[in-house]
Amino acid sequence: MNQKLLIEFKNHIDLGDLIKKYNQSFDEYVTMQIGFDGNVYILFNKNIPERIDGMFVPTESNSNYSVLLLQIDWNEEKIINEKYYDLGVQKMNYSFVQPISEGLLLVSSRCRFNKGNPENNAAIVDFNGNIIDEFCLGDGISHCFVHPDLGIVIGYFDEGVFGNYGWNNPLGACGVRVWGRGGQDIWQADKNIYDCYAMNISETGTIWYYYYDEFKLVNVSINNSCEREYVPEIDGAVSLIISKDNLTIMMDKGYDANDEFVAKKIIDDKLCDEVNISFMYQGKCRKVSLISSYGSKAAFVENGTCLFLRSF
Predict the structure, then answer these.
(1) Is CATH 2.120.10.30 what the domain over 3-311 is classified as, yes or no?
(2) Are 4 and 275 in contact (CB under 8 A)?
(3) Where are the domains of the chain?
(4) In the 8-state DSSP scheme, what is residue 59?
(5) Which of 32, 142, 219, 257 is the most buried (most CB within 10 A)?
(6) Cα–Cα distance for residue pair 310/308, rounded to 1 Å
(7) What is the pLDDT of residue 134?
């Protein structure tokens, strides 16, 4: 029988109250991501476009964006400062936000090939929304991280790997890529990746990704070409957290169990000593979902409005 690990949250944040404080609504909420600086970034769009035929994400939005930056005390699991930025009207339908040296990186998950004149689905903007640079990172983006030493780390889902929106030779065919700050190609994965399901970057700057259809977990350092592969024995996980010491990984249990979590230790380049994780707050067990992670830092949500922050 698997052992159990009890993790007790110290504090919670009412996400609904926080959003209302800045005259936003959940209808305008796009995403929440943790940056390499340890801050939490929440992206809002005043007019999120409807899906085409209820399925396909439009590439353009032409609406007003804003970002709420939260400085976090990760030891006490609470907000210590808040900054709100109005980015004005932006053309693309952005899905990701990350800090970058010049300001913010905004990335759209989709972009069209346009018969050889592809849309620029990435923009570096200042905190007033002025565009500093634009470039294309390819269609079908599922994960986006910025690391000050590595660059822009991107994971692609199946349509970005195999091609859609006019792409016959997709930029995301390799499944995982690292780009420079101007869209220069730095590194590509060499696995048969059909879909990058989960991704993270460790405290030491190594890239972790878990992919379909082999469901293997890969840890790669692109600086010294060192790569290790693990078999977590989980199908369909979408969450990945790496402990500060790089010796423990945490994942959800996969298909139909994305709100249940396990921890596994790395011993002799193998995953072992699996334990089930139970999250507690104020003496009660909490059913949470992971909404963002960067290295050992993670943001969980319960019932859509109760936000928990934790560093492992």
Answers:
(1) yes
(2) yes
(3) 3-311
(4) S
(5) 142
(6) 7
(7) 98
CB 156 within 8 Å of CB 148: no
Q: Would you state the pLDDT for residue 263?
A: 98
Closest CA to 294 of 195, 189, 192, 203: 203
Structure tokens at 245: 């010491």
Q: Tokens at residue 29, please?
A: 């909420």
**Tokens encoding 70:** 């939260």
DSSP summary character for residue 19? H
Q: Report which of 8, 9, 12 is spatially closest to residue 78, judged by C-alpha positions.
A: 12
Cis bond upstream, residue 17 (ω within 30):
no
67: its two tokens: 């970002």
What is the helix (H) or strand (E) element at residue 161, kind and residue range? helix 158-162
In 3D, which of 243, 247, 249 has the Cα closest to residue 263?
249
Residue 293: alpha-carbon gap to chain centroid: 7
In 170-261, which ranges are continuous DSSP H helix?
Answer: none
Phi/psi of residue 83, each to 5°? Answer: -135, 135
CA distance 118 to 121: 9
Contact yes or no for 310/73 (Cβ under 8 A): no
Confidence at 2, pLDDT banded by 50, 70, 90:
low
How much is the mean pLDDT over the chain? 97
Question: Who wins on pLDDT, 56 or 249?
Answer: 249
